[in-house]
Write a structure and sequence with these properties.
Its main location: membrane. Pfam families: OEP (PF02321). One of its GO terms (cellular component) is plasma membrane. InterPro entries: MdtP/NodT-like, OMP_efflux. By secondary structure, the chain is an alpha+beta fold. It has 2 domains: 30-101 and 157-325 and 366-474, Outer membrane efflux proteins (OEP), CATH 1.20.1600; 103-128 and 137-154 and 327-360, Outer membrane efflux proteins (OEP) (Single Sheet), CATH 2.20.200. It has 11 helices and 6 strands. The protein has helices spanning 2-22, 57-60, 64-76, 78-100, 121-127, 159-225, 231-265, 296-299, 301-322, 367-434, 440-474, and strands at 104-114, 130-132, 135-136, 141-154, 327-338, 351-360. A hairpin with a 2-residue loop joins strand 2 and strand 3.
Length: 480
């Protein structure tokens, strides 16, 4: 008896040893941690923690018509609604993963009929078997059953729980992806809106300049009649008028396309965009507080999304590693079974039950598991680099835009002086031409340069607004 126990004990030890050997995990590089170190401040900026990214977009944009457009877009934009469905699916995936490490309980009911040949083992047994006194074995044989099945994989290696945690992180990642899309939509509408205001003002400038050029054309015609100018001068002035008239149609087309770009973001068919273009050139540019670079990690949705993806990838490495270990499962069942329904309630005779425990471990041909583990490690490294890239990209975007804001401010101040000088030069050139102290080409050139300077200052003003929108987005504002 002791010898039999010794043999059984040796067999058990041998099986456990085999399972442990089969569970050996290939050597992989240690999980790489991301480098989240950023400079203490932006170039030429003080370390002030006040940050414009914390301002809600409805407060950041003071134009009520722009705010109304953004509100409509956030309700109707198709891309954003698609992203919301992705969030719902990610949340459902969390529920799926959560249920995987809980016991599965199934209820079943079944009926079966069977007729076996008499000259078979089962047939011979049935021919000589009485179920009860005075009752023969039924032919054909029916079988009725009802009961419960329970199966449960013991999550010893935390594979299933890590899967649920990874699904939660993926869900949080999709939320940050949605937030990043919101910031993109807000900035795109604001950019298009300011471009629209600039185009309106450029069209107005061209129309004003056309009046000046038409007056100059009439003056040249009168000069020609008085033999003080030539037909060449008349034709040159006419050509300049035609040129600016054609430019009007180009700008009108740009206005239509910009309006429809906004309409597309708003999820609606083309219609007029309500806006107030008056006094665009005199609108103040708000001051932006950039805060400190470390705040980007908390404010920018794309950086937070990359962080969640990284944490999920770490858990996926653990899940892939757990596939090398034995899985332990428990199966149990209890129910009633009889060949006639009237016997189903005859207990304990009709009761059946079972309890099974098993340990399964991969033994041969583990290449697929090894490959998936290797891929999980590679994806984790990719996630590290994506996270570091998002941080670096965020810092550079802010640094570039802060520099752009400063340069645009200096640029605009000089453009103002240029416009004032060219506006005065138009009157001087006409006066000199009338008194025969200037050539018609000087008048033409002065008008052309004056128009260009007015167009450029409008473009610079537009760029200032666009830079403010860009820095607001780059700092992580616009989604809250």
């Amino acid at each position: 008896m002791n010898k039999i126990k010794t043999i059984r004990k040796a067999h058990l030890i041998g099986v456990l040893t085999l399972l442990l050997l089969c569970s050996c995990v290939p050597t992989q590089h240690a999980v790489k941690e991301a480098n989240t170190t950023v400079p203490n401040q932006y170039q030429d900026k003080t370390t002030d923690s006040e940050n414009s990214a914390t301002i809600q977009w409805k407060t950041f944009f003071s134009d009520p018509k722009l705010v109304a457009l953004i509100d409509t877009a956030l309700a109707n934009n198709q891309e954003l609604n698609i992203m919301l469905q992705q969030i719902t699916m990610a949340n459902n995936e969390v529920q799926v993963r959560k249920g995987e490490y809980l016991p599965f309980v199934n209820v079943y009911a079944g009926a079966e009929v069977e007729k076996v040949g008499e000259y078979t083992r089962n047939g011979a047994v049935e021919q000589h078997l009485d179920i009860r006194e005075g009752e023969e074995f039924p032919e054909p044989l029916t079988d009725f059953s009802v009961g419960l099945d329970v199966s449960w994989e013991l999550d010893v290696w935390k594979k299933l729980r890590n899967g649920k945690k990874a699904a939660v992180l993926e869900y949080l990642s999709t939320i940050e992806g949605k937030n990043f899309m919101v910031t993109t939509i807000v900035s795109e509408i604001a950019n298009s809106y300011y471009e629209l205001l600039a185009l309106d003002n450029q069209l107005n400038i061209i129309e004003q300049n056309l009046e000046i050029q038409k007056n100059a054309l009439e003056m040249v015609k009168l000069q020609k009649q008085a033999a003080r100018a030539t037909q060449l001068a008349v034709r040159r002035f006419e050509a300049e008028v035609y040129k600016n008239q054609s430019n009007k149609f180009e700008i009108r087309q740009e206005i239509v396309e910009t309006e429809n770009k906004i309409n597309f973001l708003l999820g609606r068919y083309p219609q007029k965009i309500d806006r107030d273009s008056d006094d665009f050139i005199n609108r103040p540019i708000d001051t932006i507080e950039a805060g400190i670079p470390a705040q980007l990690l908390a404010n920018r949705p794309d950086i937070k999304q990359a962080e969640y993806e990284l944490e999920a990838s770490k858990l996926n490495v653990q899940i892939a590693k757990a596939n090398f270990y034995p899985s332990i499962g428990i199966k149990a069942g209890i129910g009633l079974q009889a060949f006639k329904t009237k016997y189903l309630t005859s207990t304990p005779e009709s009761i059946l039950y079972s309890l099974v425990g098993d340990v399964v471990s991969p033994l041969i041909n583990r290449n697929a598991i090894k490959a998936e583990y290797s891929n999980a490690n590679s994806r984790q490294l990719q996630a590290v680099f994506e996270y570091e890239k998002a941080i670096l990209n965020g810092y550079i975007e802010v640094a570039n835009t802060l520099s752009n804001i400063n340069n645009l401010k200096e640029n605009y101040e000089l453009k103002e002086k240029q416009v004032d000088a060219m506006t005065e030069a138009i009157d001087l050139s006409i006066q000199l031409f009338r008194s025969a102290r200037a050539e018609y080409t000087e008048v033409l050139l002065t008008q052309r340069e004056a128009l260009d300077s007015k167009i450029e200052i409008i473009e610079t003003k537009r760029d200032q607004f666009l830079a403010n929108v860009k820095i607001y987005q780059a700092l992580g504002g616009g989604w809250n």
